[in-house]
Structure formats: structure tokens, C-alpha cells
Amino acid sequence: MKLLLEGAIDCDLHPGMPGVPALLPYLDDYWRDQLSNRHIDKLPFTLSSYPPSSPLSARPDWRTASGSPGGDLNAIRRQALDPFRVRYAICNPLHGAVALFNDDMAAALCSAVNDWMAKELLDKEPRLRASILVPAQSPELAVREIDRLAPDRRFVQVLLLAMGETPLGRRAHWPIYAAAEKHELAIGIHAGSTYRVAPTYSGWTSYRVEDYVAQSAAFETQLLSLLAEGVFQRFPKLKVVLIESGFTWLPTWLWRTAKTWRGVRAEVPWIDRSPAEIVREHVRFTLQPMDVPPAEPDALARTLEHVGSNRLLLFSTDYPHWQFDGEDVLPDGLSRDTIRKLLIDNPLETYPRLRDTATTGGRRGTSETEAP
Q: pTM for the whole thing?
């Protein structure tokens, strides 16, 4: 397996998020004063979708001495970068700033997290890349943050959550997609919620298992919204990555969506071809968590046959979340060609900025002529 992993691109890695004290140097005087006066300058701002103490949030052997999963750069190197022999790993910051109702505070903290990642992670480890954390509830402020960080090409993606107040295809969100397309950034939609509304259509759940399983339904809703609203027609160069969404639900989703679209296509005339074709061109899925029965090693290969493409999957470890044991990150039943695509070719095609040859600390680059 290690031979197959050589040069892999990990499309979903979660560094431990800093508490407010570590972010204070990256905030201006006004916000440092505000956080102190409101007595919230010691809060961790943990996103409740991924409580650090939950077993799903970190494998036992990947927890640091402090208990913080992914909270130490040396641990990230030792546990994720070196064992899986990755060329690049994309850091996806899951920080509670995105759930704040105060748009201005959310924007300030998102900026601080992004600057913290650039200095404390990207500057110190050349294999790391990152997603831009944005206050998605305010597209105007989100675009401002995207434009601010766009010159640093180590940021390769804009990060959104699967559960929010409105479907992501709605036109209010389109400025974010316009900015992402302009700067060659993918849109990453990660499992998680701001909990503005109940995580299921039937209301609030009682247990963590209900919330976690319901995430796949949220991804189906968001993908259908992007498709029905015509996002991919309006932004033809945009790539959307569904992160921790699972994957095996896609064939039946495509079948039902195509069946219904044929009957009501006059309602959405901008959908000019089958949903399956649009998804194959614009949408990608990270590998972990694998929702394939372990007793059926060829199930994933059959799923890829049903969707008609082996370009949709992107390698991910989901470090430090607990999705597999040891180094058993790759599923059985895939051909060497498909494995090569999901490890290297598909990520390079999805993230144009990964094709940069890093110079000046990775902030600027020139295009490579070939894949590794």
C-alpha cells in the first residue's frame, strides 16, 4: 500500500483549531478589546458538529498529550504526512466562527484563523495547503476574505458547511462562487452545521448518531440545489468538492434526479444536459469516510461504474477523525489506474493551484508541465 500512496494528495486534513488566546495576535485592537470585554477571550470556539471529546473526532492513537486532536504540527507530520507519504495535504479548518450570528465578529475570527494557519502551519510545513474559512452567512464579507487571501496560492479552496440556513444553490451565495472561480479556487462543502435550523426535515434529533448519519441527506440537498439553481451553468469552471459526504448514495440520487428532471425540465431550462453529466464534470467527493460494506470489496468499483467515471473520487485521510485503523486508508477492489487517479490525478485536476511549483514560500508559482 505504501508504494501506491507515494506522492498522494490528501484532500481532507483537520489541524486542531487554536483557542482565542492564540488568535489574539492576528486580531486588530478593536476585536482584541471586544473579546476581552465580553469575557470570551478564553473560549475555544469549537464547532459543535465535531466536539473534540467525541470518538469520531479523533482516533485514540492520534490524540496529543493535551487531548487536542491534530493540535500539534509535529504530530501532524508524524501521524499523517509521513506515514501516508503525501505530497500535499489540504487543511480544512473546522472553527466555530462560522456559526456566530455577529457577521463582523465572524469575519474577524475567520481572518484570524486563516492568518494563523498561514504562519503556524503553511509557513512551517511545505507539504500543507489550506482552505479559506469564510463567514458564509455574509457573502459580501466572505468575498472580501477570499480576495484578501487569493494572492497566497497555498490557499486552494473556499470552505463551506453542508448544513446552513439556506440551500447553497440560492443566488445569494453566487458572489462566493464568482470569487472562487475568478481565483481558481474550488468550493469545498464539508460535513457540519451552524445549527441555525434542525439537522433533519423532521426536527431536532436526540443523539449524535442521528446527526452524523443525517449529514448525507444534507449533501444530497445541497448538490440538488446547486444543480437546480444553475450554478454550474453560471460558473462553468467551478469545481465543488463534497467532503466527508460519503459516496455510495450518488447512483440512486442521480437516477432519481434525472428521472424527475426529464418530467419537469421546462421549469429549469438552464439545465441543458443530464444531471449525471454535470456532476461528472463539476463535482468531486473525498474518499473518507467510506460507506462501503467491508464484506463487499468490489462495491466501490461497482458504484464508480454506475456513475460512469473514476474521476470523481479524491484521496483523503480525514485526519484525525476516526474513519479507519492503522494505515488502512485505501479501499479494496479498485484498479491501480483508479487508485492512481484518486491519489494524484483527480486532485491535481480539481485544484489548479496544486499544480503550482512553489516559490517564495509557496505564495506564488508557475504551472507545472506534468503530473508527478
A: 0.92
